[in-house]
């Protein structure tokens, strides 16, 4: 396989997304590099990353505590950094509803950007670094203007100080 081939990386991202949506921690853990004691997982809802074996527990808890998980990657950018090292960068639309309490919680979610690094051991690609972060401000501004354009200028909220100025 040529060193620039990115289809294996795309396959890992697709399998990762499906495993989250299906809430299958065993599938996610199978995609994670458990041999790396310094592997790194930073969720957008966390201040500190989960490191090494703590990632496995985090994945299990999140899947078990959720009644639904939405995980929709878009704008996927893939790059082979070396023959056995790959990078995926994408936007993620996510949602989650938990099982906690007698009344199920309201769904939460949003849009983040993701950096995922993978390495290949014995022909198998595994994730060893995963980080979610807020969208870049320009992307958020672009999405706002796209929403305004889709709804039409008549749907734009009026400002009371502008009505009194004429």
Describe the structure.
It is built from 5 helices and 6 strands, in the order ααββαββββαα. It is an alpha+beta fold. Strand 3 (66-82) and strand 4 form a beta hairpin.
Quick summary of this structure?
By secondary structure, this protein is an alpha+beta fold. It is 32% helix and 37% strand.
> Main sheet?
6 strands, mixed
Give the radius of gyration.
Answer: 20 Å
| Terminus-to-terminus distance | 68 Å
Structural class: alpha+beta
- Beta-strand level of the residues, as a percent range? 35-45%
Strand order of the largest sheet: 2-1-6-5-4-3
How much helicity do the residues have? Answer: 25-40%
Low-pLDDT parts are none
Q: Number of helix segments?
A: 5
Secondary structure tally: strands: 6
Series of H and E elements:
HHEEHEEEEHH
Mean model confidence by pLDDT: 86
Q: What's the shape?
A: globular
Topology:
Elements: H1 7-21, H2 25-31, E1 40-42, E2 50-51, H3 54-65, E3 66-82, E4 85-98, E5 108-121, E6 124-134, H4 137-151, H5 160-163
Parallel strand pairs: 1-6
Antiparallel strand pairs: 1-2, 3-4, 4-5, 5-6
Helix pairs in contact: 1-2, 2-3
């Amino acid at each position: 396989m040529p060193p620039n081939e990115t289809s294996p990386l795309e396959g890992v991202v697709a399998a990762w997304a499906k495993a989250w949506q299906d809430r299958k921690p065993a599938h996610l853990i199978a995609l994670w590099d458990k041999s790396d004691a310094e592997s790194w997982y930073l969720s957008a809802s966390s201040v500190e990353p989960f490191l090494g074996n703590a990632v496995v527990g985090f994945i299990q808890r999140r899947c078990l505590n959720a009644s639904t998980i939405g995980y929709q990657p878009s704008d996927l950018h893939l790059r082979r950094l070396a023959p056995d090292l790959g990078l995926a960068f994408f936007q993620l639309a996510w949602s989650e509803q938990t099982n906690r309490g007698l009344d199920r919680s309201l769904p939460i979610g949003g849009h983040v950007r993701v950096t995922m690094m993978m390495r290949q051991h014995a022909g198998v690609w595994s994730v060893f670094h995963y980080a979610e972060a807020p969208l870049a401000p320009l992307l958020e501004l672009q999405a706002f203007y796209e929403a305004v354009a889709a709804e039409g200028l008549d749907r734009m909220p009026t400002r009371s100080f502008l009505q009194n100025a004429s």
